[in-house]
TrEMBL record:
<protein>
    <submittedName>
        <fullName>Short-chain dehydrogenase</fullName>
    </submittedName>
</protein>
<dbReference type="GO" id="GO:0016491">
    <property type="term" value="F:oxidoreductase activity"/>
</dbReference>
<keyword id="KW-0560">Oxidoreductase</keyword>
<dbReference type="Pfam" id="PF00106">
    <property type="entry name" value="adh_short"/>
</dbReference>
<dbReference type="InterPro" id="IPR002347">
    <property type="entry name" value="SDR_fam"/>
</dbReference>
<dbReference type="InterPro" id="IPR036291">
    <property type="entry name" value="NAD(P)-bd_dom_sf"/>
</dbReference>
Length: 333
């Protein structure tokens, strides 16, 4: 099985050209396109989605694979921490914007496919302490004081920024896929899956390899344990072509097999975070693109329950977008 039409994305035109050439050399089809897409910019995400719309590009399967790892806390131009924006928020925004196209391309005999690439490193993610008192989970994770505090996102013995927020983002990715499965119609028009391709050779570690010690550790680790890039790609593509993917809707898949999520993700605390994550991110994404709320909000009774649980939050100004889940209901009116 192969794609009749394949669209690749990279960060700039030069990389687009190279990626297209690389794939064409080993592909059975020449119907390949490459468009630039920078997940570090919400504007780039919007423009990409607009181009999909204007050109009528059919999307039967969408695989979100972009990710970054860094040692330092740096905010992007949009005001969000680098990993939080690239690995989670922009991925969520782009996935949501692709949903109408995926639904449109659904066939009577099969679902469209949305695949979010995560990692088994989400098993090492820290618990988010005090989350019940946070007006916004994502904005709290974006706070520089919280993000770099020794008792916040840091695992024991972890004295750098990267591993902690990176694994937190991976838990959020799993939750992003899992939560809609609980309230989307069944059978679903779009099967969503979070997948772990395993430890593979890639450029993901390029930022942390600026540290000589880390570079040596990464190179040794890859030499001994890493799969080839091509082997890892099989795990990425598998959910897009698996005939029974509808049966795995909302599940975490590791090495092409349905697997159990981390104990934290499956705990009552993790499920509560998952329930609050979607409305909270809709509020944020709604600022980026107002129309998003029309295609990604949970059912109205679900929103009302969230608002009741947050009675301490109040605002008379419905234009306020940073007051927690209460705003979701106000915008939905």
């Amino acid at each position: 099985m192969w794609a009749l039409r394949l669209l690749l994305t990279t960060r700039n035109e030069a990389k687009c050209k190279q990626a297209k050439q690389d794939v064409e050399q080993c592909s059975v089809t020449n119907n390949i396109e490459a468009w630039s897409l920078e997940l570090g910019s919400f504007d780039s995400v919007r423009k990409f989605a607009d181009r999909i719309q204007s050109e009528g590009f059919p999307i039967n399967a969408f695989i979100a694979n972009a990710s970054i790892a860094t040692f330092t806390y740096v905010k992007m131009q949009d005001g969000w921490e680098t990993m939080l924006q690239v690995n989670y928020l922009s991925t969520a925004l782009l996935s949501i914007l692709m949903l109408p196209h995926l639904i449109k391309s659904m066939m009577a005999s099969d679902t469209a496919r949305l695949v979010i690439v995560t990692s088994d490193a989400h098993f090492r993610a820290n618990k988010l302490k005090g989350v019940a008192n946070w007006p916004s989970i994502l904005r709290k994770l974006n706070d520089d004081e919280y993000c770099t505090a020794s008792d916040a996102l840091y695992t024991q013995g972890c004295d750098v920024h990267s591993p902690c927020l990176a694994t937190t983002c991976q838990v959020l990715q799993v939750m992003f896929v899992r939560e809609p499965a609980s309230w989307l119609p069944n059978p679903t028009p779009v099967s969503t899956t979070s997948i772990n391709p395993g430890f593979c050779h890639s450029h993901l570690t390029r930022s942390i390899e600026s540290n000589l010690v880390m570079k040596l550790m990464v190179h040794v680790g890859k030499a001994l344990l890493a799969r080839t890039t091509e082997m890892g790609s099989r795990a990425l593509v598998h959910p897009a072509v698996e005939p029974s993917e509808r049966d795995r809707h909302g599940r975490y898949v590791s090495c092409v097999e349905v697997a159990k999520e981390s104990d934290y993700a499956l705990s009552e605390e993790g499920k509560e975070i998952s329930r609050h994550l979607w409305p909270g991110q809709v509020v944020i994404i709604n600022v980026i693109l107002r129309i998003v709320r029309r295609i990604c909000l949970p059912p109205s009774d679900y929103q009302q329950k969230l608002c009741v649980s947050r009675t301490k939050l109040s605002t008379k100004d419905t234009s306020v977008v940073d007051c927690g889940t209460r705003c979701v209901c106000q915008y939905a009116k």
